Amino acid sequence: MTGEPTQDGESLPRWYVIQCKGGESFRASEHLDNQGYEVFHPVLEVQKRRRGKLAWVSEPLFPHYLFIRLDRMASNWRPIRSTRGVLRLVSFGNEPVFVQDALVETLRDRISADSRRDRANVYYRQGDIVEITDGPFRALQAVFEAQKGEERAIVLLNLLQQTQRLEVPVGALRKHPS
Fold first, then answer.
1. What average pLDDT score do residues 156-177 get?
2. Is the model's pLDDT at 159 over the cut of 90?
3. CB of 156 within 8 A of CB of 163?
4. Rounded to 5 degrees, what are φ and ψ at 159?
5. Cβ(77)–Cβ(17) under 8 Å?
6. Closest Cα partner for 172 from 157, 159, 153, 149?
7. Radius of gyration of the chain (CA)
8. How far apart are CA 10 and CA 3, in angstroms?
9. Do the bridges between strand 95-96 and strand 91-92 make them parallel or antiparallel, or are there none, so unpaired?
10. Residue 81 is inside which H or E element, if any?
11. How confident is the model at residue 42, as a pLDDT?
């Protein structure tokens, strides 16, 4: 499970897993990067409600974990364990666990594609059933039609047997559990 030697006896750089202290994976990633290590900290951009408004937030794909690329022979492993935010290098016995390069590349590709797609889309999609959570139409269900800027949305509300277009704050909507 260690860096595999090449035919001339040198080892190849491999990806290893670092376990971070609770809530400190961003700090660990930053400090390792500042020390010159190649780090991959997979994060997703997600929309979350913050004070009633939707905001883009970075969240780790694997909370408490990140990947670091090291060479068994050439890399200096000592500073890693004393880096702020790092708890330990994940090991089985005394051997650090490496991760196949293909897995890390697949994660990078997927996260990159998901990030571009998610940023292009809004939190709600046209046709989603939503519930209005604030204002005079509170507790009524509507159909999400479109986003209007960052703060407003247009929904279709069925009132008195007719569909009405209504503009509401995005923060006053919640996806209806299907």
1. 86
2. no
3. yes
4. -125, 125
5. no
6. 153
7. 23
8. 9
9. antiparallel
10. helix 78-81
11. 92
The identity of residue 22, as a single letter, is: G
- Location of structure tokens 């794909």: 61
Backbone φ and ψ of 29, nearest 5°: -60, -45
pLDDT per position as a tens digit, 25-84: 999 999 999 999 999 999 987 767 777 666 778 889 899 999 999 998 888 899 999 999
Per the CB < 8 A criterion, the answer to whether 112 and 119 are in contact is no
- The b-or-e profile of 83-92 (16+ CB within 10 A means b, else e) is bebbbebeee
Identify whether the C-beta of residue 24 lies closer than 8 Å to the C-beta of residue 117: no
List the structure tokens of 46.
Answer: 């997600």
Residue 161 has, within 13 A of its CA and on its CB side, a CA count of: 0
The two tokens of residue 113 are 């594609």
pTM value is: 0.62
| Residue closest to 42 by CA, chosen among 109, 134, 96 | 109
| Positive or negative: CA dihedral 31, 33, 36, 37 | positive
